[in-house]
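Handout, section 3.2

Students often ask what a structure token actually looks like in practice. Rather than define it abstractly, here is a full record for Catalase. The first block is the sequence as you would receive it.
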Amino acid sequence: MSKRPFTLAEGQPVSDPSVSTTLPVYGSGGITTLGDTLLIETLAHFNRERIPERVVHAKAAGAWGEFEVTNDISSLTSAKFLNGVGKKTPVLFRLSTTGGEKGSADTVRDVRGFSVKFYTEEGNHDIVGNHIPVFFVRDPVRFPSLNRSHKKHPATNRPDWTMFWDFHVNQPESVHALMHLFGSRGIPDSIRRVTGFGVHTFKLVAADGRFRYCKFHFRPTQSITHFSGQEATRLAGANADFHNQDLWDAISRGQFPVWKLYVQVMEPEQAETYGRALFDITKVWPHKDFPLIEVGKMSLNKNPANYFAEIEQAAFSPSNMVPGIAMTPDPMLQARMFAYPDAQRYRLGVNYTQLPSNRAICPVYAPFERDGMATMTRNYGGDPNYVRSTLSPGSPSQIISDVRHTERIERNASLGQNEILVDDEDYIQPRELWNKVFDEAEKRQWVANVSQTLEDVPVQLREAVTAMFSKVDPRIGQLMVSKASTNAHL
């Protein structure tokens, strides 16, 4: 390997970056000065080399890969990266825990964030979801509170189950997500074997302007497997970076993980009468009503050369959509479309889209977004930075699918704090999960997992948790009471 001379950041040569410039004194001491640029720059950069971590989804692993279309869905969408069997698109993948800080353990019981950035010829498209198909809340104003309740207590600075359950019994629309979280799916044994869901409802828009509602699903080609609670706890202490290492080592061995991408599709005519589950992310679309349609496969085949540059600085957002895919009136989606880019502006700076991981591979001409800290381009030179200029070299983009879709407003609807109150509909899908998906062993393990978190919770709150899950199925409450009685005698 050829040697490269050391320099300062501005290129000036440095003879030895491990030695300061000093004036020696007796006793092996030395006097340093502000004229030692090497020392000053080294210390100053060290003080600034950490950036704010993500408030949620801070601990993550990531890798580069490729997406290939395996089934033609051009009749559903004009999005070029989804059209033409064999079409390949480079991707960046990131999977994270939600609540823990950057130094926390991988193998905790938590919802995993599942993010994929597609670098397409029409711009970057992101699918930013979770490893379970539903979410805890449907009103975006509750999103910060949800995450605070899953993080550390403001006084003790420790995770606190009382705080966790106090939030959820007062937002019981979260019961469906809780059923998933405390099941076996709550602790994956490998990133390579987790599911990924876009969670929200989107629109697929065809070249003729016709649209359908859709949901995105990633399913691993390997079997979906999980850790027991005991094994996960052991690994959290033995190797806090277990999932990171497992993904890295597999790619290094050439055992590239693969997921298939599917969509569920709902016709607008069906949506007119489908009800709350159309845009309510605490609910799923049953596969029997809306079967999975295969689209393609994603393979991860390259580890990052530098984690910070490529993964920590990667910025994902559901607002990153290409022509042929569009937003819907899901309030949580619309709030995330603001909150996620805003988080990146705070963490990485206003020009975060110029960083290598976030830079589009297609031509970019956005002269109305310029200047600001850390501009890394020619900043559009002298091109006009105002609209409707006859001097501008820019021209309107010809987007075939850029059509307007007016959603039907409910009759007599009024703008206000229109809360969707929890009713029995919110318990139907959790009940089906309990009765039709969980076997007897899974049911008992689920009860054990929840009961373990309630041991130090105040009695009144413990009873409220039991009452909430009893609305899913009375047997859950009975098993929880029995488990609590057994634990009390141990």
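Discussion prompt for tutorial groups: The radius of gyration is 26 Å. How would you have guessed this from the sequence alone?
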